[in-house]
Design brief:
The complex is a heterodimer of chains A (362) and B (179). Chain A is an all-alpha fold. Chain A has two domains: 1-88, no CATH class; 94-357, no CATH class. Chain A is built from 15 helices and no strands. The radius of gyration of chain A is 21 Å and the shape is globular. In chain A, 43% of the residues are buried. Chain B has two domains: 1-84, NADH-ubiquinone/plastoquinone oxidoreductase chain 6, subunit NuoJ (Four Helix Bundle (Hemerythrin (Met), subunit A)); 125-179, no CATH class. In chain B, 74% of the residues lie in helices and 0% in strands. Chain B is built from seven helices and no strands. Chain B has helices at 3-24, 28-48, 52-77, 89-112, 127-135, 143-164, 170-178. The longest helix of chain B has 26 residues, at 52-77. The chains are: A mainly alpha (362), B mainly alpha (179). The interface between A and B is large, with 40 and 31 residues.
């Protein structure tokens, strides 16, 4: 099996042939499903643990502390220990809850997260599904996740949970508009919704630079709305701990709580990965016009490293928001979306149409 | 039986089961969740047919839009312990008859219709094609449905504003300022 860190399409193709030689087509499909499923689950678990660790360290840095230091070197094993603790905790079932919906809710949140991850291009040839409507698919499946939050809040039969769920519902429904419209701005520039085509057309220059000012505005709006979509600070009033104990997941414990927690972090990864793919060139290396030597050096860094470097950069930015800005009130959140972001977005789309029609872009 | 068949029967089975559960459940939020499963399984069948665009529309509009609105309104109005009252027997019999008649009519129509496989090549769903289809008024254009739907939306919005707008009664304003 040939292994090339710059192009995975040969490797996946060889793996497919290797399976096909030894098994029936049906068995091959089932084995490949299992391999892909297990690798996604492993990725979610490991990257989720890494993100929790990173969040604690970033938070500590902003507050002039060290963060976790005792378990393992620089506290590297802290989140693994926390996870083992969560796995072994008792699952407490509220007596007057709607048991079916209470148990279902974490899974709906988790399934929506996994569905959205299926189309992300990690590197050349390292993409599970490549729909011709890739961007639309991501916005479609991520809109299902909020149902899990609403169900969790209602079925817990707890006032705090219910208020948290309703806040989060109003917030996510509103900000979905801004997320989709800022992506539409880039779809106009790219002329395609297929994620692999979008990445490929950013070979010379990223869409953030290609589309001039409208791209930049769309990127900023996408970051703000994406942060709100994931229920993270400063938009975290669905789980505002000082007023609602823990919001919609107050009544959850053990591994079911961990599902919500993990889904929130992986959703942050998805927002960062979408920002990377759509605005920052995905796994494409950084290229500057005609500086040949610089471009050549950049080409040596493998695409997977580029992708994760960009994603981690955006994630750091989102964490930075959380630990610098104070939490918004519910009316301020809705005002920000409906009176500022939405009109700006609509005007921005017109601006982008002008740029594309006059061929002003690079 | 190929994997495709198995997947189809899985989706079809879950659509049938959850449709039944939607109308038989006595807890209103559970009904809404069963309806969500029906709609998501339908999207699954569209994905199987490689009709990705409609599948994604099904997920955004029905699962992400309508179901969320239904759940939201249930959240605001009802409580976990509430259960719907069982309908009287007479009502049950008549609704069963109506449903059976509807089912027979639908099934007969489906069997009577001569389905012919499409021979024209698939159109790529890129932005250009979707945009062209939306504004063109030819045979494959959607200009008329697009405009009709926008009028419907406008009417719905005007209605919502009329319902939500408070009366500009000087007494009411005085009361509010006192509060």
């Amino acid at each position: 099996m040939g292994f090339n860190i710059y192009d995975f399409s040969g490797m996946t193709h060889n793996m497919h042939l290797w399976f096909m030689e030894r098994m029936s087509p049906t068995a091959t499909t089932i084995v490949e499903w299992t391999v892909i499923g297990v690798s996604y689950m492993l990725f979610v678990a490991l990257f989720g643990l890494f993100l929790v660790y990173a969040e604690r360290k970033v938070c500590a840095a902003f507050q002039q502390r060290l963060g976790p230091m005792r378990v393992g070197l620089w506290g590297l094993l802290q989140t693994i220990a926390d996870f083992v603790k969560l796995l072994m905790k008792e699952l407490i079932m509220p007596k007057s809850a709607d048991k079916f919906l209470y148990n279902l809710a974490p899974f709906i949140v988790m399934i929506a997260t996994f569905l959205a991850m299926a189309v992300l291009p990690f590197a050349k040839g390292l993409q599970t599904l490549d729909f011709d409507i890739g961007i639309f698919y991501v916005t479609a499946v991520s809109s299902v996740g909020v149902i899990g939050i609403l169900l969790a809040g209602w079925s817990s039969n707890n006032k705090y949970s219910l208020i948290g769920a309703m806040r989060s519902g109003a917030q996510i429904l509103s900000y979905e508009l801004s997320v989709s419209l800022s992506l539409v701005t880039i779809i106009i520039l790219a002329g395609s919704m297929q994620l692999s085509v979008i990445v490929e057309s950013q070979r010379d220059s990223w869409f953030l630079f290609k589309g001039h000012i409208p791209s930049l505005i769309a990127f900023v709006i996408f970051l703000i709305a994406g942060t709100a979509e994931t229920n993270r600070g400063p938009f975290d009033l669905a789980e505002a701990e000082s007023e609602l104990t823990a919001g919609f997941h107050t009544e959850y414990s053990g591994i079911k709580f961990a599902f919500f927690f993990l889904a929130e972090y992986i959703n942050m990864f998805i927002v960062a990965a979408m920002a990377t793919t759509v605005f920052l060139g995905g796994w494409m290396p950084l290229h500057f016009g005609s500086i040949e030597s610089f471009n050549h050096v950049m080409d040596f860094i493998p695409p997977l490293v580029w992708f994760f470097m960009k994603v981690c950069g955006v994630i750091f930015l989102i964490m930075w928001f959380k630990w610098t800005f104070p939490r918004l009130r519910v009316d301020q959140i809705l005002t920000l979306e409906w009176k500022y972001l939405l009109p700006i977005n609509l005007v921005n789309i017109l601006l982008m149409c002008l740029v594309v029609l006059t061929k002003f872009h690079l | 039986m190929t994997l495709n068949d198995i997947m189809f029967y899985l989706f079809a089975g879950s659509i049938l089961t959850f449709s039944l559960l939607t109308v038989t459940s006595r807890r209103i939020l559970r009904s809404a969740v069963y309806l969500l499963f029906v709609l998501v399984s339908t999207a699954g069948i569209y994905f199987m047919l490689n009709y990705n665009f409609l599948a994604a529309v099904q997920l955004t509009v029905y699962a992400g839009g309508i179901i969320v609105l239904i759940i939201f309104s249930i959240l605001l109005t009802s409580h976990v312990s509430e259960k719907a009252v069982v309908a009287p027997v007479k009502q049950q019999i008549f609704s069963a008859l109506a449903v059976a008649a509807g089912a027979v009519l639908t099934i007969l129509t489906i069997f009577k219709f001569a389905f012919s496989p499409s021979v024209s090549p698939a159109v790529e769903a890129n932005v250009k094609n979707v945009g062209r289809a939306l504004v063109s008024y030819n045979r494959d254009g959607f200009a008329l449905p697009f405009e009709v739907i926008s009028i419907l939306l406008l009417a719905a919005m005007v209605g919502a504003i009329v319902l939500a707008k408070k009366e500009k009664n000087p007494e009411n304003i005085e009361k509010q300022t006192k509060l």
